[in-house]
Design brief:
By secondary structure, the protein is mainly β. It has one domain: Beta-grasp domain (Ubiquitin-like (UB roll), Roll). The protein contains two helices and seven strands. It has a five-stranded mixed sheet with strand order 2-1-7-3-5. Strands 4-6 form a two-stranded antiparallel ribbon. A hairpin with a 5-residue loop joins strand 1 and strand 2. The two termini are 16 Å apart. 27% of the residues are buried. The model has no long low-confidence stretch (mean pLDDT 92). It binds FE2/S2 (inorganic) cluster (FES). FE2/S2 (inorganic) cluster binds next to loops.
């Protein structure tokens, strides 16, 4: 088991030690971090956070599309740290999570399924 440091950029850079075995949501909540969550199996997107540095293994998530992944979103209830990471957490990190179809309509070439492709850790 390897231990990494999670820095919460929008919580005054608070730091927590986490292991690579258990999901980040579970570990951070046990340390007293207040985080939104719902299903806890990677399907509802409630626990999304923005990864601003480092990498996670979130192969088990099914909630995010490729645009959201490209914008740095990770699903904390299934994601495991694979190195030291920095996150923005909570609903205030969700600014780019959803697309406003009135402000940012899809282009014709985007009118297709945007299903996330599995990626390695
Ligand atoms: S709590 Fe539902 S996707 Fe994480």
């Amino acid at each position: 088991m390897t231990t990494y440091t999670v820095t919460l950029a929008n919580r005054e850079n608070a730091q927590y030690a986490v292991n690579d075995r258990r999901p980040l949501l579970e570990q951070l909540r046990k340390k007293g971090v207040d985080l939104p969550y719902g299903c806890e199996y990677g399907g509802c997107i409630t626990c999304a956070a923005k990864l601003t540095d480092g990498k996670v293994d979130q192969r088990r998530q099914v909630a995010l599309n490729n645009r959201q992944i490209d914008n740095g979103y990770v699903i904390l209830c299934v994601a495991r740290a694979t190195c030291d990471i920095t996150l923005e957490i909570g609903v205030e990190s969700h600014g780019k999570l959803y697309r406003n179809p009135f402000l940012d309509p899809l282009e014709p070439h985007e009118l297709k399924a945007d299903i996330a492709s599995p990626k390695g850790p």
